[in-house]
Amino acid sequence: MHLIDFIIFLVFTFGVVVFGCSFFKKGSSADDFTSAGHSIPGWVVGMSIFATYVSSISYIGYPGKAFAGNWNAFVFSLSIPIASYFAAKYFVPFYRHSGSVSAYTFLEEKFGRWARLYASACYLLTQIARMGSILYLLAVPMYILMGWNIHAVIILTSIAIIIYSMLGGLKAVIWADAIQGIILIGGAVLCLGILMFSMPEGPMQTFELAINSPEGNKFSLGAFTSDLTTSTFWVCLIYGIFINLQNYGIDQNYVQRYHAAKTDKDARFSALFGGYLFIPVSALFFLIGSALYSYYTAGVAPLPEDIAAKPDYVFPYFIVNGLPVGLRGLLIASIFAAGMSTVSTSVTSAATIILTDYYKPFRKNAVNIANDQNSGTKAGDRREVFVLRLSSVIVGVLGIIVAIAMLSVESIIDAWWKLSSIFSGGMLGLFLLGCISKRISRTGALIGCILGVIVIAWISLAGIWDLPGIHLHEYLAIVLGTCTIFITGFLITLFIKTKPQHPHNQPE
Fold first, then answer.
1. How would DSSP label each residue in 30-53?
2. What DSSP assignment string belongs to 166-180?
């Protein structure tokens, strides 16, 4: 690695950590940590939502998918406007006036304590899996570039992210996200320009080679068939609609950002701005993948077979070997920007959930709660801040373990999408049940959740264990799990409401 590249990368990474730590205040409260004191401008929150979408999974995984296959995964992005609209119109005002920073307080009010614990546990599992996927992708460029031990890179990167997330809280995360989002867009645009203008016959050759690929059109959005066992256009679109509605509607990452905005108007703007910005930027990453295919097919530079066999390694390999000094360091820094922003978001939101959904409720039931009340609110707040920071460390360590386990995965974006679909547990169905009526049966909701988990487990394990019956694509786990919970809860409630009461059973 050239000294200039190393300096650029080191200055940027160290600068982000220092910038995040600069938000640390000795007397900061739990509210400062979890909702940034409701003081962030709308455009900054929107950039943070965008940066949460654009993780290293997007930065490396999307080009890898386009290089090896086509633009099928881009269909996920096309579903975002639906979720963004519902977020701005319904979800933002709902959470802004809910009185709780936790996304799952509502579920407890509707269905009982079990619902809140169920949804928050699903969320924590999803975030730990996401952190592991991203930390792995953060380590890949440094492994290719410098031959560093990939385990060591994962651990050191995690420590840096945990430090500024733990000290600065949500305010540090949001402002760092906004800056990192701008840098990663600039880096990607520069990279695409170099790829396309390096083609022997000019930029248009990029499209000609990709469209006429022997493996099929690299710009294809997937088959438009009704096959539910493969990742067709419709499977990807349905998955995207459900996962994005879940993100905007019940994902703690987003709910905390709604609370962090200064006003309701700022919060609504941030939901729309962050979602819509992701669509062209994700298209940019897929175009980079197609350009990489054309670049190496045209023989502009050789591509080792071992790199070509792992699509997630192709873009980092190009950065290391195809970019000029200085820009190489900037691109690696932008990949780290994408990953650090998302991991820091997951750390902060997961710590918030541990505090609000686990520590606080069980602390209230402890025998020594009177001592906390006598000690005053300042002591209690200091204890909550300590719990938040300790939780950040624990979640970060679990993310490291998952990242190391991800080293054997062939396609990181496939692995992440499957895990997110499974770990979601269909909790969107529970949320929608609570929204449609004030009289949804708690028993119906519980039975629906049990059946939903069974359906998700069946879809997830059917292919692995070759179970009898219909095999569906793993992306559909969240779709059928959500529908099972919603329909079951609704029908049981309908049955209970319409069941006639006998006169002798009615109270006098």
1. HHHHHHGGG-B-HHHHHHHHHHHH
2. HHHHHHHHHHHHHHH
- Confidence class of residue 221 from pLDDT cuts 50, 70 and 90? very high
Rounded to whole angstroms, the Cα distance separating 433 from 431 reads 5
Please say whether the beta carbons of 13 and 333 come within 8 A: yes
What does the buried/exposed string (b/e) look like for 119-156 if buried means 16 or more CB atoms within 10 Å of the residue's CB? Answer: bbbbbbbbbbbbbbbbbbbbbbbbbbbeeeebeebbbe
Q: Are residues 326 and 226 in contact, defined by beta-carbon separation less than 8 angstroms?
A: no
**Structure confidence at residue 370 (pLDDT):** 45
Longest Cα–Cα distance in the chain:
90
In this predicted structure, what is the pLDDT of residue 207?
A: 94
Look at the block and give the residue holding tokens 């609504």.
268
Alpha carbons 225 and 351: distance in angstroms, whole number: 42
Taken in order 130, 132, 135, 140, the sign of the CA dihedral is: negative
Phi and psi at residue 40, to the nearest 5°:
-95, 135
Distances (CA, A) of 183 to 4, 16, 186, 459: 18, 12, 5, 39
DSSP-assigned states of every residue in 177-226: HHHHHHHHHHHHHHHHHHHHHTSTT-THHHHHHHHT-TT--TT-----S-
> What number of other Cβ atoms are within 10 A of residue 23's Cβ?
21
Question: Measured between alpha carbons, how far is 462 from 464 in angstroms, rounded to an integer?
Answer: 6
In angstroms and rounded to an integer, the radius of gyration of the C-alpha atoms of the chain is 24
Strand partners, 261: 40
What is the model's pLDDT at position 197? 93
Q: Token match 């300042």: residue?
A: 378
Q: Which of 331, 398, 355 is nearest to 189 (CA)?
A: 331
pLDDT above 70 coverage of the chain, percent: 83
Per-residue model confidence as pLDDT tens digits over 452-503: 989 888 887 776 666 666 677 888 888 888 999 999 998 988 887 544 444 4
pTM tops 0.85: no
Residue of 74, 51, 48, 52 lying closest to 61 (CA atoms): 74
Mean pLDDT along residues 107-113:
87
Core vs surface per residue 245-279: b (16+ CB within 10 A) or e: bbbbbbbbbbbbbbbbbbeeebbbbbbbbbbebbb
Q: Are 23 and 274 in contact (CB under 8 A)?
A: no
CA distances from 287 to 201, 207, 231, 312, 409 (A): 18, 9, 20, 15, 24
What is the distance of C-alpha 119 from the center of its chain?
16
Quote the CA–CA distance of 267 and 46 in Å, as a whole number. Answer: 8
pLDDT, mean over the chain: 80
Cβ atoms < 10 Å from Cβ of 166: 24
What number of helices (H) and strands (E) belong to the chain?
25, 0
User: Is the separation of the CB atoms in 88 and 235 below 8 Å?
Assistant: no
